[in-house]
Amino acid sequence: MLRELAPLALSLVLVAGVAHASDGRLEINQSCVATGCFPGDAVGFPVETQAATSYVLTSNLVVPTAATNAITLAAQATLDLNGFSISGVTSCTGTPVTSCTPTAAQGQGMGVYAESRATIRNGTIRKVAGFGIAGGGGLHIDSVLIEEAGGDGIYLNYSSDGPEGHLIQNCRIVRNGGSGIFNSGGSGGVGALITGNVILGNKNAGYSGFRALLTNNTFARNTGPGTSGSGGSPNAIGGNSFLFNNGGNDQPQTGTEVQIAPNLCGVDTTCP
Fold first, then answer.
1. What's the mean per-residue pLDDT of the chain?
2. Could you tell me if 246 and 225 are in contact, meaning their C-beta atoms sit under 8 angstroms apart?
């Protein structure tokens, strides 16, 4: 009988090592990074997740180097930052930003790399050396402060498995070393909705990309224009405020966009 119970006891010990929040979400915190936070997650950064699973931060995460990615979020997974932060070793100077040190090579130093149709919400990503958040098609990013990342605050890529469908809402994207949001779009990328965000003081444009709908955002004091769509692939804009971008209110505040509702562009409603 004791021999029969031993495997069961061992399995209970292993399960007990995985922390679950009261609602069943898997917990991520600084302590568990040292041992692996759950099955399939190797020791150390980045924390590696599983598809279509919910995760919650239960402490701040601090990455040790400019090349360290904090979390890899699998397709259709959800990460609740839960009011906590992911932070790194980078500092940016100026508003708008003039420089960030240190920065990271492409694909390194990211706060969260998210695969297609993942969700990130409710917390802060600051001072990472690469992108604050980057990932594939159909990301949903809600109520996240992204500041002083060495690269773009948010880097949106296209997905080979369907339309993009990105939704970025209620975020503050402030003083990053690239664009506030960069949307690569792919060949024929469509479907991004950017709404209710404050995008301020970034080294390049506030939003760099095309074929998106941008509504009710504030773009202020970015080195480039607030938005940078082109005549062949314009963005639709309405209800946004564009202030002191591109060197001042007397400079073009947007690219060649389609205005679907009035916008404040400097001191009037004439954009660019």
1. 90
2. yes
